Amino acid sequence: MDSNKKLSSSVDYTQESPVKAFMYGTSSLPEISYQADAINKSQEFDGNNMSLTNGAGFQKKKNLKKGRKFANNYSNSRKIVDEEGTEMFNARMQNKTSQIQMNLVANRIKRLEFEERRAREKILKAKFAAEKIQKIRSQKETERNQKRKFQEMHKRKLDKLRHHNTLERLKVRQHIQDLQSYNRDQNHQKRLKLKEEVNKARELNKALLKEENDYILSLRNKVKGEKSQKKTLRQRMKNHMGVMLKSKYHSQIGQFRNNATQNYITIQEMEKKEKELLDRLKVTFKSVEDQENQVKKLQKNGKKRPLKNAKSVVAQYISTPLVSKTNPVLDNPFQMQKDAQRKLSNAISQGSNTNGRARNNSVGQPHQMAETGQERKEENL
Fold first, then answer.
1. Coil, strand or helix at 81
2. Which residue of 35, 52, 151, 167 could cross-link 42, Cys pair, CB 3.0 to 4.6 Å?
């Protein structure tokens, strides 16, 4: 029943044809009065297929095969309708609809029988499940009763054991107290004996300490006598060795002193030379400034030249000490001064005279080059 309701509710077959409306729920088949209108509305008629091609209310040949074929006999005039044909058609449709209703009723009956069987099966399953649940409940109740009985028995046994254990504990406490009292007496006697033995050992230890102290004092006296003898011997040896050393190394001491005075004189001379070299460096620094000023003038006039910072080079050589103050004898300040002057002159020449054309066209440049060459000759001398 439910399935039929679902089918009827999901699709509304009454909109397509009155036959389907009668098949799916209507009580009686309505009279077919729409055929004449269909004939009037149709434009073409195919005699072989016996169906209207463009008629309103009719469907094509494929749909007409599903139990809904209409037998219509029309005249060539397309206006006269055969009454006998319509009666035959109505009778056939009533017969088919009755058969369809019979089939639907039979299907509903089968459906109801099937649902009844399923309901009976469900009832039987529910009965079996209820019986199983009842059995399980009865088993659980029996198990609970057994557990209660076992717990009661266990509690009784525990009570008996506790009572027995309390008695045993009292006995053990009494025995422990007796042992403690006995041990106290025994320990007191042992302590007295130990005190006597300790006193005897202390007296013996005091006597031994006295003997050891006497022996140590005797040894110290012996050591003191030996030390005094060693001191006298050492003093004699020192006096003898001092006389020997003075006589042997007197000449060498004089030589070392003479060398020290000569070194001091050389240091003073080197300091003077260092001052002279610093003065020369100042002169060169002034010449570098003059050269830079000339280069700037040339650049203003339009003759550009690449220029390196010669001031930083000169400042670097001035800042580095030419003579090491820690050990001035080992260093060679003259060679260091020559190297510094050569590097400085190279830096100046690279900064001012890199291009050949600029060197030839520069104003006042040969005079400066002659001065730098003359300074180099003086340095080499």
1. strand
2. 52
